Amino acid sequence: MGFARTCSVALVGVEGVVVEVQADLEAGVAAFTLVGLPDKSLSESRDRVRAAIVNSEAEWPQRKLTVGLSPASVPKSGSGFDLAVAAAVLGAAERIDPRAIADLVLIGELGLDGRVRPVRGILPAVLAAAEAGYEQVVVPEQTAGEAALVPGVSVLGVRSLRQLIAVLADEPVPEEEPPQAGRPDAMLAGLLVPGAGVGTGLAAESGDGPDLADVAGQHTARTAIEVSAAGGHHLLLSGPPGAGKTMLAERLPTVLPPLTRQESLEVTAVHSVAGILPPGEPLVRRAPYCAPHHSATMQSLVGGGNGLPRPGAVSLAHRGVLFLDEAPEFSGKALDALRQPLESGHVIVARAAGVVRLPARFLMVLAANPCPCGRHTLRGSDCECPSSIIRRYQARLSGPLLDRVDLRVEVEPVTRSDLLGQGGRGETSAVVAERVREARDRAAARLDGTPWRVNSEIPGHELRTRFLAVSGALAAAERDIERGLLTARGLDRVLRVAWTVADLAGHDRPDAQDLALALELRTGIARGVAAPVPAPVPAPVPVPAGAGTGAGEWS
């Protein structure tokens, strides 16, 4: 009889659970039994492992074989257990030393020819192994860079089962034929899920991506974009078609600061599980951008799928931007499902197969037309939408959802002078991003020692008792509360925005001007304050040669 054990990782959402893989050989009729709550793809590993071991020039044990996955109560899915099962079987058959694999974590799928194929979710799996105290992991060679992102873990990337056997048995490691240059590598097929990345993307690392300077005019909307990025405030852009709402939303990620190391690991883990991690880029450093179509279901937004739920759009936009274009066209149930992750920063999805907690701290941008045809607010428009249809269309964005949106901006049609460049060119994303970074640094210094990172996360009680504005600055906000223009939650939102405006302006505390701009961005009512974003400077008018100073002019 022989016995061996090793370890692998089962993923539940984006969190991993270390699973002990045990193999036991007993005298009896040759059979292979796999127990421990495996799913269909994992049950099929019996045939894959047997063929891989035989084709790797190792002997398959002709005895009764039982492989157990413990803890048995944890659902296990996917083909990433193949490598651990094969190692446990070889250890029980004494082809390799069972002590050599007892403290190893092995993750990878086996081909019938013995090659080790990459699987999704390597980063969260290795993170779970490191948190459990394991220091050595074996992964497919193609994902070794992703696994190496976890500090304190020794990573061995193997291309085939033959190489793993040679390393563990202290034998010469055979050379495996690398993929031919210029030809597609079929081994990478398991890393990407077709269609899973539709509507998602990452901000460009270089200057080749969209730039805020491409937007003509829209000074108030540009101010709202800058305030949203600096404080992490949700934003509603409403206006007629063609005014630039989508352009503004697409350029919001370009002014967000780069992700920290911890944030990069969180985003990379979600993208790895979802199968949309860019090939050759194991670490995501820029804020992601997700723009699902308005026909998206509630499950595609918050997470779902057969069996255990998979990350939805809110998780794919974690630490980035979730843009809902034509927001009133989304399902009411789908929009209302966003209320919980907007407040908590995560989404909990309960299904019959289990409960999954997925990260979902994103920056939401809504874009909406004033009516179904979009021409309701245009001067001299020929909008024929009945008033009842307009009210019903605008009511699709529920009050509780809009109450969680800090900034509400009316995007006016672009003027001729702005469109033709006569008003001067707006600031680039790099210039705005620098101001956003400085504002976030001020907020981080002020919030040091607290559980909050940006102004949008500060509770209302703290804003009214601990982080106080300048005396008398709240007079306008108090009048709006009395007139019913602001709710109690709305006042908290205004205070958060005011702190962000103050950070952008370099003020120690919000003053009356900062509160006035915050109220204007919240209620849409002009307060006669100047935007913190400098307006574009018109080109100087050339002076004719020989022109001098006339009588009565200052010299």
Tell me about this structure:
Belongs to the Mg-chelatase subunits D/I family. ComM subfamily. This is YifB family Mg chelatase-like AAA ATPase. Residues 231-415 form the AAA+ ATPase domain. The chain is an alpha/beta fold and 555 residues long. Helices cover 33% and strands 16% of the residues. It is built from 22 helices and 17 strands. The protein has helices at 40-43, 45-55, 82-92, 98-101, 122-131, 144-147, 161-168, 219-231, 245-251, 261-274, 298-302, 313-316, 332-336, 339-344, 387-394, 399-402, 416-419, 429-446, 460-465, 475-482, 488-505, 512-523, and strands spanning 2-12, 15-26, 31-35, 64-70, 105-106, 109-110, 116-117, 136-140, 154-158, 200-202, 235-238, 288-290, 321-324, 346-351, 354-359, 363-368, 407-410. Helix 18 packs across helix 21 (488-505). The N and C termini lie far apart (106 Å). The relative contact order is 0.10.
